[in-house]
Design goal:
Length: 327
């Protein structure tokens, strides 16, 4: 729609106009929503969320899903088809987060919102049929960035981080049509518009809560296993793959997948984009393989082991983080 002759680019519109245009695009191209047991709008520590329950008896594993949109555009409505698919295919209770956007709420409002939701999930999701020992986090684009931030800020909390073309580095050179081929909507000017609104004037773009790629090695070493998906025409592919490599170097188990089609910005349209359909299936498969964290001690004597946080069974080499409580 944005590449039609004479069509205005998102950064040429006001934020409300650009958001309305994108919401209309999701409605047209998202496809028929998949069936889930039920949905409910809620407020999690002041942040709007939408909950999606799978069929079957609980408690269900929980997925905090964070929408894309560049911290300026986008809403949880754009992730409706994705959230329904992931809930049904993976059997997860999905908590889709509608974090605050710039320019009304620049950095760190989005980070504060996803943190607030994670704390709400920890305290409240059990009463809603969720299993707190099986909690994953994921998102696409800006949501992938915020997912990585959340995984780094809350070590030991998640069994998996699913990062779909994550925007992990806001210091990189911005792309343009000439640099990335025909029809790419994310030009230098457009991405500068996103970044300028989100960061403002006083924020260091190497702050790890802005660019997780710049987190220190010790922080990354405590991160959960990761699924990292990038795309062939993805202007942020290199930074997503660089982040996957940094996680590997820190000893984190990583599965990395690249789809050669253009899915960045189209992950929420599985009915229209075949690669998006494949990527959603890949995320759902990873979620199904994520193993729970035991909640009761497995040894009762001195030096007992209280918690084991395993990696994903059958996916990569087994790895456990052992917390030993000594008297």
């Amino acid at each position: 729609m944005a590449t039609q002759p004479g069509a205005p680019q998102p950064h040429e519109l006001s934020a409300p106009e650009a958001r309305a245009a994108l919401d209309g695009m999701w409605a047209q191209l998202g496809g028929e929503p998949a069936a889930v047991a039920r949905t409910e709008d809620a407020v999690a520590n002041g942040v709007p969320v939408k909950l999606y329950w799978p069929e079957g008896e609980g408690p269900h594993p929980v997925l905090i899903w964070i929408h894309g949109g560049g911290w300026v555009l986008g809403s949880a409505a754009a992730s409706d088809a994705t959230a329904r698919d992931l809930s049904g295919l993976a059997g997860y209770l999905v908590v889709s987060v509608d974090y605050r956007l710039a320019p009304e709420h620049p950095f760190p409002a989005a980070v504060e919102d996803v943190m607030a939701v994670a704390k709400w999930v920890s305290g409240e999701i059990g009463a809603l049929g969720g299993d707190i020992t099986r909690t994953a986090v994921g998102g696409d684009s800006a949501g992938g960035n915020l997912s990585a931030v959340l995984a780094n800020e809350l070590p030991g909390t998640f069994t998996l981080q699913a990062l779909v073309y994550p925007a992990t580095d806001l210091t990189h050179p911005f792309p343009s049509y000439e640099e990335n081929g025909e029809g790419l909507m994310l030009t230098k000017d457009a991405l500068a518009w996103f970044q300028g609104h989100y960061l403002g004037e006083d924020v260091d773009p190497k702050d790890p809560r802005v660019s997780p790629l710049h987190a220190d090695a010790a922080t990354l070493a405590a991160a959960p296993p990761a699924l990292v998906i990038t795309a062939g025409y993805d202007p942020l592919r290199d930074e997503g793959e660089a982040y996957a490599q940094r996680l590997r170097e820190a000893g984190v188990a990583v599965e990395q997948v690249r789809y050669e089609g253009q899915i960045h910005g189209f992950f929420s349209m599985p009915a229209a984009i075949p690669e998006a359909r494949e990527a959603i299936d890949r995320v759902a498969s990873a979620l199904r393989r994520a193993r729970p964290r035991p909640t009761r001690p497995i040894a009762a004597d001195h030096g007992r082991i209280d918690h084991i946080v395993p990696s994903i069974d059958g996916w990569w080499m087994g790895k456990a983080l052992w917390q030993v409580n000594r008297p």
